[in-house]
Design brief:
Blueprint: H1 2-8, H2 15-18, H3 23-30, H4 34-41, H5 50-62, H6 69-76, E1 81-86, H7 92-107, E2 111-116, H8 121-133, E3 138-142, H9 148-155, E4 160-163, E5 173-176, H10 179-192, E6 198-202, H11 208-223, E7 233-235, H12 240-250, E8 259-262, H13 265-277, E9 287-292, H14 297-300, E10 305-308, H15 314-326, E11 335-337, E12 341-343
Parallel strand pairs: 1-2, 1-3, 3-4, 4-5, 5-11, 6-7, 6-8, 8-9, 9-10
Antiparallel strand pairs: 10-12
Helix pairs in contact: 3-4, 3-5, 7-15, 8-9, 10-11, 12-13
């Protein structure tokens, strides 16, 4: 009696709310077999007319029925899950790419799992192993680092789309921009403006994206007979703190650079802060060019000239690459190069 009164008062869930609706209830509501319900909801075409399919879907909607994917995953060893491994979730640029990929995957009826690797190869391997245990259908690897687990996953045939950085040991499917050409474009802009004493704060050279944009910049400057001084080539990582530290080193010399190309926009933020502390004007004393066109720029750095990467275009390109792998239409070493452009604002016009 007490249990009944408590349930009536809403303090305990009813028996019906404790148990989800089963496939049998949907079949009974639609007047078909459970096998027919299963075929319809799994997208298998029926021999019968479309009226039966519509009736099944209507019954499922009315009863708020959701198929349990776990059983199907155990039978087929495949799910509609796609893992996105991301190096730094706090970086707005990476987050924008993640949002684009998630939206595109959702259109194809896939669900994305987000894993933050922090550029740690051991953590990357942990997530790769875990995602395979969950039978993910594929992986979008944003900011790959070389690791034993990555090579194991590739040997096992795990579908992987490498995003923004190329596969550490070559091959694979890559989606991103031509970083070498983008670095060259940055140098050509500096040259067109007549800047002398050009410097570069580069990212980790173990990353194909950072290395190629750095190499493109240096090659273009060297071909023009304007190679940066060794003291004007400084590592700064990919963070605001790294940019600030690198700027402190560059600007401590008697003859500081006239223009500085940064590994990304976060590095440029750190550089700009150090310039302000030293009362150096940007671009009057030092021209600054970033990379990525971080979505935060519109709010915190509308002055920053940068290389724009179309982060909103990554989702469709990554999804398309995975679909081609799943369907067996993806040629080895293939992928998609996305366009980049220079966004010239106040800091390096």
């Amino acid at each position: 009696m007490r249990t009944r009164r408590t349930r009536e008062m809403g303090m305990l869930p009813s028996a019906s709310s404790e148990r989800p609706v089963g496939i049998e209830a949907v079949a009974q509501r639609a007047g078909v077999s459970t096998a027919t319900v299963s075929r319809v909801l799994n997208g298998i075409k029926l021999k019968a007319n479309g009226e039966t399919e519509a009736r099944v879907r209507a019954a499922a909607d009315e009863l708020d029925y959701r198929p349990a994917h776990a059983g199907r995953a155990l039978r087929t060893r495949q799910t509609k899950l796609v893992a996105l491994l991301i190096p730094d979730i706090s970086n707005a640029f990476y987050s924008a790419i993640a949002r684009s990929i998630e939206s595109s995957l959702r259109v194809t009826d896939h669900t994305m799992i987000l894993c933050n690797t922090g550029e740690d190869p051991d953590l990357q391997d942990f997530y790769l192993d875990e995602m395979q245990a969950y039978h993910v259908r594929g992986v979008a690897l944003l900011g790959a680092v070389d690791s034993a687990g990555l090579q194991r996953a590739l040997l096992k045939g795990l579908p992987i789309a490498f995003v923004n950085r190329k596969p550490p040991r070559g091959g694979g499917v890559f989606v991103g921009i031509d970083n070498h050409a983008a670095g060259r474009a940055a140098a050509e802009h500096f040259l067109s403006q007549g800047y002398d004493r050009c410097a570069v704060i580069h990212g980790p050279l173990s990353s194909s994206a950072s290395r190629e944009r750095f190499e493109g910049f240096i090659l273009a400057m060297t071909e023009a007979g304007r190679s940066p001084l060794p003291s004007h080539i400084v590592p700064g990582g990919l963070s605001i703190e790294g940019g600030y530290a690198a700027a402190s080193q560059l600007l401590a010399a008697e003859f500081y650079p006239r223009a500085i190309f940064c590994a990304n926009d976060l590095v440029a933020y750190g550089l700009f802060r150090r310039c302000r502390e030293l009362r150096l004007e940007v671009p009057g004393d030092i021209a600054v060019l970033g990379f990525d066109d971080n979505p935060l720029n519109d709010w915190v750095a509308p002055w920053l000239s940068t290389v724009h990467i179309p982060y909103n275009a990554f989702g469709a390109a990554v999804t398309d690459a995975l679909v081609r792998i799943w369907e067996g239409h993806q040629a080895p070493h293939a992928g998609e190069l996305l366009p980049f452009s220079l966004r010239l604002r106040g800091s390096a016009e």
